[in-house]
Records
---
Amino acid sequence: MDKEKIISIKSKFLIEITKAQSEKELYDIKVKYAGRNGELTKILKNLKNLPAEKRKEIGPLANQARQVIEKTYEKRRKELGSQIDWEKEKIDVTIPGEKASRGSLHPITLVYREIEKIFSSMGFEVVEGPELETDWYNFTSLNFPLDHPARDMQDTFWIKSPKEKMVLRTHTSPVQVRYMEKQKPPFRIIVPGRVYRNEATDAAHEHTLHQFEALVVGDDINVGHFKYIAKEFFSAFFGKNINIRLRPSFFPFTEPSFEFDISCTVCGGKKCPSCKNSGWLEIGGAGMVNQNVFVSAGYLRNRYQGFAWGFGIERLAMMKYKIDDIRWFESGDLRFIKQF
Amino acid sequence: MKYSYTWLKELSGTKKSPKQLAELLTMRSFEFENIKTEGKETQLEFSILPNRGHDALSHIGMAREICALERRKFSQTSPFHLETKFPSGMEVKITDKKLCPRYIGAVLENIKVTASPKWMQERLVVCGIKPINNIVDITNYVMLEAGQPLHAFDAKKIYQIPDTKYQILIRRAKKNEEIKLLDEKIYKLTENNLVIADFKKALALAGVMGGFESSINSKTTSIILESANFNSTSIRKTRALHSIITESSHRFERDIDPNLAETAMARAIILIKEIGGKNIEVTALSDVYPKKAKPWQIKLDTNYANSLLGEKIPISKMKNILENLGIKLLGNLVSKLNVEVPTYRIDLKTQEDLIEEIGRIYGYENIKEQAPCVEIKTPPQNAKRDFENKLRDILVGLGFSEVMNYSFYGAEDVAKCNLKIEDHIEVANPLSSEQQYLRRNLISGLLKNIRLNLKNFSEVQIFEIGEKFCNDKEKFSEIPLLVGALANDDAKKSPFFKLKGMFQELLQKTGIRNAEYKALNEEYKFWHPTRAAQIIINGKKIGRIGEISPIVLKNYGIKRRVAVFGLKIEELIKIGAQDKQYNSISKFPTVERDISMFVGKETKYADIVSNIQKNGGNLVKNVELFDVFEKEGEKSLALRIKIGSNSKTLTSGEIDAVMEKIVSSLEKNLKVKVRK
C-alpha cells in the first residue's frame, strides 16, 4: 500500500509542479509533499515503525522519491527564475540620459595646463609674481630708461599710490628680476600670469590678458638653444612638427631681441588664408637677457647668459579652439565656458 | 615710416624689386607694413624699431641699412658741410643747454615763396607728406632724406634789434605762456616746455610744432631757417602733455645725432638756392654747439659673440658686417676687436648691441637649433598652483564652471556691495569710470555673471580663482581667493545648504576635515546678516559662506537667492591636508535609531550633534540629519544615529541604555522636546 502511495505522490508532484507559475507556488507544492508535514515525509517518518523486511522495501523507494522531488523542484525553480518577460522590460534606449551636473574649466586654464605640462617635462619650474607691481620691477629693473619711447610700447595702467610708483604689470617679465634676486643660475623657469594693457577692447584687443614667459639662464645659453626649446615646445603643443623663425626686434630687457614666428599650424608653411599667405604666424617676443637686467638682479655683468621669451595665452587658445573674439574669455558667459 | 622706393634705390644702388626689399628688410631689420603704388612711385612702409628712430627714419639711414644687408658699403656721393665764412648777423642764446645741445640758425633773404618743383612734390606725396610751398617742402624733404627735422620762420615776423641783428632765444616757457601753433590752436605752456623765442614772444614749441604767427606764407621774402637738436625726454614730455605728435616730435623723442644738424642745414641751403633762385643769400648764420658729440669705442670679444649667438662666425665676417654699417675697425688683439661707432648710431653702446648687428645681418635662420646641456633634475613643485589646480578639478567635478572676470570695477559696484571707496586701490588712468578701482572682492563679478547666465540657464554654479586688491590705510596688498557661487532654479528655496554640502565635499577632498561654521549675525558688506557664517579651521578664519543679502541681489537685478563661499587660498595651503588614516571597520553589526525632536529656534544643530557624541561616546558611529521643518515657531529635526561597538555585538538592552542617556541629556541640557 505504501509502495503505491509513494508512486502516486511522485506522479502527483510531477504533474502539479509543471503547472506551477511562480517560485512561491512551486515552494508550496514542495512543502505539501516533502515539507515537515508533507505526505512523503510522513511515510519517511513512519519507516522506523515498519517491520525490517517492509522497511527494506519501502525505505529506498521513499528516499528515491524524495530525491526526485528535490531535484525536480530545484530544476524547475531555476527555470522559473530565469523566465523574464523581455518585452515588458523593454525601454527606448535612444532617449537621452538624465542630466548630470557638469562643470567646465576655463579655456585659459586648459591652455595653461597644457603648456605647464610640456615645460615641466623639460625640467622647468613654475614661478609666479604679483599683478600689482612697482615701476622698478615692471620697467626700470628691466632696462626701460625713464621717459623713453620704449615705455610707450606697453600702454600702462598706473596706480594712484601715495609712496612708490606702481602699475598693473604690463608683462610677466618683472618676475625675472624677482626670481633672480633669490636664485643663482643655472635655472630654467616659466612664469604664467595675468597682465594688463591700457587699450580699448575689441574683437582682437583686450586690456586684461594672460601671458607666459620662459627664462633660461646659465654659463653659455645661446640663440640656438632658444630656437631648439621653442621648436620642442610648439611641436609638442600643436602635436606636429613646427618650425621657428626669428626676426629682429627691440625690447629693452633683451639684446639681441627677436620677434618669433612659427610655421603656420594650418598649412604647415605652404601659405594659406590663416597665415595671410605668408606661411608663418606671429607668436611673441624673445631675446637674450640684457646684461643690465642681470645687474638689476644683483648678478655680475657678463657672468651669465640667458634667454627670455613670452607670448599671449589668449592667442594660443584662439588658435587651438578657433575662437573668433578675444572678449569671450572674460565674459563669464556659460554658453562659452561650457563648451570646454 | 613711408619710404619712396625710387629714392631708396637711388641712394643705395640696390637692384632689388620693392617686394624683395620688403622681404629682406623684414628678416634682417624692420617689419614691412605696406606697399602702395602711386603713378610711377612705389611707397614702402616699414615699422621702425624705437631704438633705430635716430638713423632709420630717413632715406639715407635706410639706404645705409640696405647696403649693409647687401654686404657692401654705403657711399654718399656728396656729404654736405657748412662753409665757415657766413656772416654773423644773428645771435643764438640757449638758456638750458641740457634741453638743446645744438642750435643752428641761418637768415636767408630774397626768398620767393612759390610751389616746389613737381619731382619734389611727388616724393613728398609718396612719403605721405602734403606739399605746401617751396620753403616748407624743402624742410620736409631734407627731413625725409636725412632724418633731421627743420623749421623755417618768416624773418619779418621776428623782432629785430635796432642794430639789425636777429636774436633767437631757446628758453623754457613761462608759466601759462600762450602760443598759437600751426594747427591754429592756442596752447597754454608750462615751465617744462622748451620754446624758440625772440626778444618779445615765443615763436615755436621747440621740436614739436612751429608757431602760427611766424609761419611762411606767400608774402614771405626772408626766412630764419632752424636746424637744431633737442633733448628727447623733454620733447616727449611736451608732446605728451599737449597731445601733439608731429613728424618732428616723433624723431626728436627718439634721439638724434647733433652732428646731423649741420649736414641738414647745408643740404637745405643748397636746395633753397637751387630751387628758389640765384638771388637768395645767406646773410647770417650762427651755430651754437657747446659739447660736440664724438664717436665712441667699444671692445668686442668675438668669442663672446659666438657664444651668445651659438654659431661659429669667422672674425673676418664679423668685421665685414660691422664695416658695412659704417663702424670703424681700430684694430684687434687676437679675438678682441676694438671698434669706433659713428655718432649716427646712438643705439650701439655695448658689445651686445654689436652682437645683435652681427647676428641679424648674418641671418638668424642660419643659426642652428641646439639642445642645451643642462643638469637633469625634477623641478621644484609650485605648491600654490598645484593646489589651485586641485581645487579647480574638485569644483568642476561638483558641477561648478570656471569664470575669469576683470580686476576692475567702478564706484557703482563699490556702493552696490556696501563697501568703502577708501579701502580700494585706484587706477590713475582708467579706461572708463566702470574700471576705476581694483576689485576688493570677486563676488561682484560673480553676481554680474549670474545675472547674465540666468537668462540662458535655470541654475548657475560658478567659481573664480583670482586676486583681490586691498588698500588698508594706504597699505596695498594682493590676496589670491577662491570664490564659488550658486543660484538656484527656485527663487524661494535657499541655495545655502546645497552650496554648503558641496563646499564640505571640497574641503573633504582637499584633506581638511575640521571646519567650523560660526554664524555671522551682523550686517557685513554684501552678506545676508542671518544666513552667513565664518569658516574657521584650527581657530583660524579662512573665509565666509552664506547667502548674499537680498538688498545687494536687488542692486544687481537678480531675482533668485544666491549663496557664495569665499576662501583665502594661501591660508588654506598653510593649514594643509591632514594625513589620511584608515579607521578599522567594525566586524560587529551597527543599528540605526531615529529620534525626532522639537528644538528652540536658537538651538544650533552643531550643539545637538556634539551633545549626542559626548553622551554616546564611541558607541555613536554616525549622526545624520534627515529631516527639518518649522511649525508654529518651533523647529523640528529628525536625526538618524548609528550605534555599534568595535568589540562585540550590542544587546538591545545596551542600545536602549545609550539612547536613553542621549535623549535625557538633550532634554536636560538643550531643552529639546524629543518626540516619543
---
Amino acid sequence: MRGRPNLYTSYEDEQKILPTVTQRVTMGAFLLATVTVPFSVVPGLRFLGTPGWLQILNVMLVFLVAALGLNILIGFAGQVSLGHAFFMAVGAYTAAVLAGSPTQALWGLELPLWFALPIAGLAAAAVGIVVAPTAVRVRGLYLAIVTLGLVFIGAHIFRNWNQVTGVPELGRDWGPLQLALWDIDGPALRFDKDGDWFGVFVSAEGKTFLFMLVVAVGFVVLSKNLARSRLGRSFAAIRDRDIAAEVMGVSEVKAKTQAFAISSFYAGVGGALYATVVGALQPEIWNLFLSVEFVAIILIGGAGTTAGVVLGAIFVQTLPRIVENTTAFLEVQVETQGWFAPIADLIIRTDGADLGIVSTVNNGPGLSVAQANGLLFGLFIVLFLIFEPLGLYGVWLRIRNYWKGWPFTY
Amino acid sequence: MTTVVERPESPDISSGYPTVASLSYDWSKRVPDQVAMREKDFGIWKGYTWERVWELVHEAAHGLLALGVTKGDRVSIHSEDRPEWVVLDIATVAIRAITVGMYPTNPAAEVEYLLGDSGSIVHLAEDQEQVDKLLEGADGAQTVKHIIYVEPRGIRGYGDDRLMFWDDFLESGRRHMAENPSAVFDLMAAAEAGDLMTLVYTSGTTGPPKGAMLTNANAQFAMDLVVNVPGRTPDGIIPNSSDTILTYLPLCHVAERIFSTWTMVISGAMLNYAESIETVQENLREIQPTLFFAVPRIWEKMAAIVEIKSRDATRVKRLIFRGVMRLARSIGKDKIANGGSHTVKSRILYAVGYPLVFRALKERLGMRRVRWSATGAAPIAPEVIEFFTGIGVPIFELYGMTENSAVATLNFAGRMKLGTVGEAYPGIGLRIDEDTGEIQTKHPGVFQGYWNKPEKTAETMTSDGWLRTGDVGEWVDGTYVKIVDRIKDIIITAGGKNVSPSEIENSLKASPLIKEAMVVGDGRKFLAALIAIEFDVVGDWATRRQIAYTTYRDLSEKPEVIELVQSIVTSTNDKFSRVENIRKFRMIPKELDHEDGELTATQKLKRSAMVETFGDLVESMFT
C-alpha cells in the first residue's frame, strides 16, 4: 500500500534497513560519492582524493570497523570494555604471523591476506570467548577494570614476545595488502602499489581505500543486520535489564559470550587491517589510549547506533586534521594581517612573547597543536556526555524529529 | 495423456435474492486473492483474502447449522469489531437466520434484556468479560443454547457446557460441511427479499432498546443508495475495491454496518479493524483510509487534539500553523459557500497551505487519503465541518436512522449546505409534516417494525404508511433539510416559547473545552444548562495556568474553570435570541458513562436518566 509509511503488513516490511525510496536513493548517492573519492570527480570533495587525505580516510575506515565491534559490546549489549586495544592486537599479530615474511628473529608464514584476515578475527573472538565469563560475574565499572587489566597483560606479552611482535619501539613489518589466491608471488590484486585498473590510474592509497571501503561497508551492513536480528534483540534485552531478559528466556551467559565474541571478531579484523594500512606498528601502540579513543568514537557518535559509529569515526579521525588546518590558516592570518587576524591572534601564539593558547613555535610556551587536539577531544567527550548523550546521532535525531512532528512537536 | 482438471462447478445460488452472503461469495469467485479485510496482530496488519473470508463464512454457516440454527433463528454477537464479527454476521445471513448485534459496552443487565427480547439461541461473546456479563444474569440467560467465545483466556475452567471455542465451532462446521456439502448453498439459493437479516437495536435514549427488523431487501436498498448513489464523492467515483476503510465504531450500529460491512460486500472495499476505540487515532495514521465515517464526537475529538498539539508546538511551528489555519478558515468558508467545491481563490490558498501544513496535518490525522468522509448519527457543530473542509478533508453531513436503513438525506459533493443534513436521496419519499414539523420517510428501506413490539411499530408509522422519524425538521432553500431537534426534546418554556436545545448544545460543544452539554428548562422561566468539560483539554489548559487539580470533579469545580466555561456560555448566548439564552449553568461532577446509564451505547445523552441523576443540580438552578 503506497503512501502509508506507518502501515506494516509483514515483519519483513517493518525491519527494512532502508524502508523508503528516499532513503534508498540517498544511501545510493552517498555510496556512489564515496566510491569515486580516489578519482576526485565529485565537486567539493575533490581534495579527498589526495594521498594525504586518502591515508586519513583509510585509517578512518579501519577505525570504523573496530569501533563497530566495540559498539556491539557497549552500545548493543551494554558491557563496558576498555580492552578493545588488546583484542585488536590479538588480531593484528595473528595476521602478522600468518601473512608476514619470516626472518631470523621473526615468525611469518607468508599466507595470503584473504586467509589471514578472517583467522585474525577468529583468534580475537576466541580470546573474547575466554574473557566473556568474567562479564557475567562483574558489571559496569568493575568490568571496565577487568578489561583494563587485559590491556596491561597484553602490553607485557607484546613487549617480550619478540618473535611475534618485533623489537620494542620498532615493531615489525606486516604482510602486503593484496588478494592472492595462494601464491604470494603472483597476486591477483595488489592494493599497496600504484597502477592501472581497467585503464584508469589508481594510486596505492586509492586502491587501499577501495579495499577498505568494501570491508567497512560489509561490516556496517553486518552490524545493522545484527541489531535487528534475534541476537541483537537479546543483546538489547541484556543491556536494558539482565534479570528481566533472563525471565524472558534470554540466557545471560550465552548473550554476553556472543557479544564478546562478535565484538572481538570486529576488533581482530580491525587490528589486522590497521597494521596493514599503516605498514609497521610498535608493540606499545596497543595501549589504554587506543581503547579510550574507540570509546570516544562511540560516545561522540552515539552509542547503540550504527550510523552514530560512522559519524563518530569520521569526526574523531578528521578532527586532528581540521585542528591542524585551522591552526595553519590562523597562522597565515596573523602573518598577513587578514580579516580574522584579531581572533587568530588571541588563539595562537607565533612567538614566545605573544598571547594565545596554541603555540606554533616548537617547544614554545603554551599548548602544542597535538596537545590542543587532545584537549579539544576531551572537551568534546565531556560536552557530548552532558548535553547530547546520544552523540552526533542524537543531534541528527533532533533534527529529524523536528520535521517528523511537523506541524506539531510530538 | 493429459488430464483436464475441471474446476469444481460453482454452486448455483443465482435463484436466491442477493444478500450480504451471496455478494461475499461472488467476490470470493471474482477476486479470490484480493485482501478483503485486515486485522492488526502483534504489530502487523494481517490480511484475509476474499477466498479466506468466504471459507470462514462457509465454515461458520455450517457450524451454525450443526448447532441447529434454522431459518429465522436469532444469532447474537457481543464483541468489539473483529473479523469474527463480520464472518458470523454474513454466515448467519447465509443460512437465512437473523443477526443481533450488541454494543461491547452493554452492561450485564442490558445484555440480559437484549437476549431475552430477541430470543437469541446462539450467542458469540468475544472474551471472558462478555461471557461473564451473560452468565451473571439471574438465570444465566437460559434461552441461549450455545455460547461461542473467541478469546479463550480465562474461560477454560468455566464448566458451562454451552460454551464453545471459536476454532472448535469452525471445526464442527467443517465436519457438517463434509456430510452436507451443499446445505449452505441450498439455503442461499432459497434466500428471499423479505427474509429478516438483522435486528438492529436502537440505542434507546428513552425507554428500553427496541429491535428494528431489517430484511435483505432493506439492506439491498441501503447499499444501492447510501453506498452507490451517484454524486456522493467529490471525484465522482463510487466506492470500489481500491478503497480502504477503518472499522472502529460498533458494528451493531446501522451506520457502521452500512459504511463497513455493507460497503465491503457491495463494492469490494477493504476493511481494517481498529485495535480498539482508544487506538483509533494511531490506526487511522497507519491505514490512511480512503472512505471514513465518524460520529461528531470523533470529529470533535480530532479537532481538539489538533488544538492541543498546536499549542504545545515550538514557537516557529506555532507561528506557521496559526498563519495557515487562518488560510484554512478562509478556504473552508469559500468552499462551503460554493457547495463544498474549490473556488479559484480557495484552490490557490490551498496550494500555499498544502506543503506548509495541510499535507502533514492530514497525514497525522490519518486523513491524507480520504476522498470522502461523513458525519452523522448525531448533530454536529458547523464549525467542525468548516475546519475539516478548510484543511482539505472532504466531509459531508448525512442523516438517517435505523428504522429507514439510514436512507434519508445526504449532502452531495459540490452541493453541500452547511447547517443542513443535505437533500433527500433520489427517488425516495421524504416529507415534513406541516403540523408537527416532523420528518417522515417512505421507501423500500423502511423497516418491517420492531421485534415483538407491534404497538411501538404502530406508533412509529403514520396512518398512510410513512415512517415517523421523531425529528423536527424544516426545508432550507426548497430541497435541503435542516434538523431542528428530536420532537421529544423540544423545550417549551414557561413563557410558551419553543426552543430547540440541541442547537444551543452544539454551539457549546463546538468549543474543544466542552465535552457534553444538556440544556434544560421545559416549563421553566428561563433556560439553564448542565455542562461537562473535556478532561484532557481543560486539564491541559489548567496545567498551563499552573492550576493544580486532582480529579475530574476537582477540576470542573475550580473557580477558574467555571469562569472559563462562563465565557464560552456568554459567547454562545450572543449567537442566540434572548429567550434562548442560558442564564445559569452547573458543572456535571463526573465523567458521563454508558455503564452508569447516563449515555447510550452510542454516547448520546439519555436525558431522562440525566434529569434523574442530576435532579438536585437542575433544581438548584431554578430555585
